[in-house]
From TrEMBL:
InterPro entries: G1P_thy_trans_s (IPR005907), NTP_transferase_dom (IPR005835), Nucleotide-diphossugar_trans (IPR029044)
Recorded catalytic activity of this chain's protein: dTTP + alpha-D-glucose 1-phosphate + H(+) = dTDP-alpha-D-glucose + diphosphate
Domain Nucleotidyl transferase as annotated: residue spans: 2-242
Name the UniProt record assigns to this protein: Glucose-1-phosphate thymidylyltransferase
PANTHER family from the UniProt entry: GLUCOSE-1-PHOSPHATE THYMIDYLYLTRANSFERASE (PTHR43532), GLUCOSE-1-PHOSPHATE THYMIDYLYLTRANSFERASE 1 (PTHR43532:SF1)
Keywords assigned by UniProt, alphabetized: Magnesium, Metal-binding, Nucleotidyltransferase, Transferase
Similarity field: Belongs to the glucose-1-phosphate thymidylyltransferase family.
Needed cofactors: Mg(2+)
Enzyme Commission no: 2.7.7.24
EC class: transferase
Pfam families in the record: NTP_transferase (PF00483)
Function: Catalyzes the formation of dTDP-glucose, from dTTP and glucose 1-phosphate, as well as its pyrophosphorolysis.
Amino acid sequence: MKGIILAGGAGSRLYPMTRVMTKQLQSVYDKPMIYYPLSILMLGGIKDILLITTPDDQPLFKKLLGDGSQFGIKLSYVIQEKPTGLPDAFVLGEKFIGDDNVCLILGDNMFYGDLDFLRLAIKEQEEKKNGLHGRVFAYYVADPTAYGVVEFDKGTKKVKSIEEKPKQPKSNYAVPGLYLFDNTVAARAKAVKPSARGETEIVDLILSYHNEGKLGVEMMYRGLAWLDTGTPRSLLDAAAFIGAIEERQGLKVACLEEIAFRMKFITLEQLQKITSELPKCSYRSYLEKIITEETI
């Protein structure tokens, strides 16, 4: 399983913050936004990751994350000249995907909670369990009109339809920006035609699997938090949420160095070296506490 993070786009809803820096590099409480989707892929066990960026922002991402080796992962980069729709991520990543399965996460999506659902879905995706070649997720929201919406059969719970931003949603289940597909996804993405707004739609790509009976939709449980950070209000809400969790627990969310160590991507000795090179700050102090706990 390979991973793709789509961190391009204009970020127009966050203007003027995004005039000089993309939204995925804006802060969410105490870390850049990109840390959060990257942490999800790492927690899913994915170590080979492609980061899709704008031309202007790619040097900043490389300065922040490098080649990923400090986290025990491999980071590659590709430029998206202009946003033409989410399926474009698979066209740009065609060579990167190769013969493998791929997990796409949007660079402004955050998840908090037990990720066993994702690890299980990745395992089933790699096994092509039940003949399914693609998987998306369904999350209950109060107002689904801003998202792709899944309609389920009330009796069988099977998917009846998936619609993009419907004015009259047939359910409250939205499709978050997290997707699992097989290696036919690039060819499928190329076949998707632009919609009336001039961009290709991820729902049309998803439907190509659904219409062949190859799509699985996994329900996300109520204890999982999904945060979309694409507007000033949602960005503020996400920062407040992360801040409350971290201050209450004393544990950091999306601390990439800690995740790399917990996932055994790096050793304790490597964690110690990385931490010693950080400036004196609360982030370093947190990692030093972890190291101390591990060496007692």
